[in-house]
Specification:
The chain is mostly beta strands. The protein is built from one helix and 28 strands.
């Protein structure tokens, strides 16, 4: 079998004309085999590492990264505007959630006051800091939104439990939720701020939290916007601070994919993907997983079976709901996101932001 996207899966992404589709950069990744489709690198003008990515539609996407960098495109990646918050050069921005071309929320990670949330309502022309962590024990990793008003952010365990922030006004204000409904964390367990996908949601109330570092890599599930959580073991190996579940994607309340492994370059990552069909109560190992560590994953638009996983050594495609994967690209990316109107974007190190398109 070729390493390209299947004709059916490719059609799901590429049926509509691209909105200002960019021309491939000189070092663009190789096409996805005979179908003539692949990641088209765009010119970003920066060497920041973009672990945060929010794809809004075929024309609009936001990326958040190192050195406090935020980029935005409204023309399908032909051009990117630097809309970084003023004075944010010391911040590590690891997640961004965007509602449209003007409204977005970004998360800065780190211990103590390095963890912050900022929001813009005017396309990044101005930013407002809506949360600054004052607890030196907390370290925030990821954010997610159920809709344009309700969202969550998660911190590594404090006093033995993951700490959850909640917003009801689109990220303009945040409050720490009570932890009575949060299971105890395992010794050494934490989240990975690697792709903005350690905390994800689907529908108006369901959220999932990915873990690693402990004896077992686990996935926690809330059905009530973060008040109460259940927990299940994944099949992705853990037992080391560098191993566990790094990214989650749910196409609805029941069907999900987890990816991860060991992020160290000299370590192998067997069983780097798992799937669930019951909302995360049980996880099954992929029978043919990606060949290496993967940090980001996204379902292809309007598909019940196709998804992409990305990591520093490549991109993999599944067309059977996450049970088997094949490598379709060897470029380095940290995260991936797809939109309802048929666009997929990926971003990563050295200013790399790409969009899936025809050659």
């Amino acid at each position: 079998m070729s390493a390209g996207l299947s004709g059916a899966a490719l059609a799901l992404v590429l049926t509509a004309p691209a909105h200002g589709a960019p021309q491939p950069a000189p070092d663009a990744a190789a096409p996805f085999a005979s179908h003539g489709a692949g990641w088209q690198l765009t010119e970003t003008g920066t060497d920041a590492r973009f672990r945060g990515l929010a794809a809004v539609d075929r024309g609009t996407a936001w990326a958040a990264g190192s050195k406090g960098t935020v980029l935005r495109t409204t023309d399908g990646g032909r051009s990117w505007r630097n809309v970084s918050p003023p004075g944010a050069g010391e911040l590590e921005l690891r997640d961004v959630e965007a509602f449209d071309a003007r409204r977005a929320v970004v998360l800065a990670i780190g211990e103590g006051e390095a963890s912050r949330v900022l929001r813009t309502d005017d396309g990044g022309a101005t930013w407002t800091e809506s949360f600054r962590n004052t607890d030196p024990r907390a370290f925030y990793d990821c954010i997610t939104f159920f809709d344009q008003r309700h969202g969550l952010a998660m911190s590594d365990p404090v006093d033995g439990k993951y700490r959850i922030l909640s917003t009801r006004d689109g990220g303009r204000s945040w409050a720490v939720l009570p932890d009575a409904g949060m299971p105890a964390a395992l010794p050494g367990e934490a989240g990975f701020a690697a792709s903005g996908q350690c905390l994800v949601s689907s529908g108006p109330r369901d959220g999932w939290l990915a873990t690693g570092g402990g004896a077992t890599a686990r996935v926690l599930h809330s059905r009530d916007r973060g008040l109460n959580w259940t927990v299940a073991d994944s099949t992705i190996p853990a037992g080391d601070p560098a191993r566990g579940v790094f990214g989650l994607a749910f196409r609805d309340r029941t069907h999900g994919i987890a990816v991860g492994g060991d992020y160290r370059k000299d370590q192998s990552s067997p069983q780097a993907a798992a799937v669930t069909g019951d909302g995360g109560r049980r996880w099954s190992a992929a029978s043919a997983p990606p060949p290496a560590y993967r940090s980001g994953v996204a379902w292809l638009p309007h598909s019940s079976s196709a998804a992409l996983a990305v990591g520093p050594t490549g991109t993999d495609l599944t067309t059977d709901g996450g049970r088997t994967w094949r490598t379709v690209d060897t470029g380095s990316y940290d995260t991936v996101d797809c939109t309802r109107d048929g666009a997929c974007w990926a971003s990563g190190e050295k200013g790399r932001i790409a969009r899936l398109g025809r050659r």
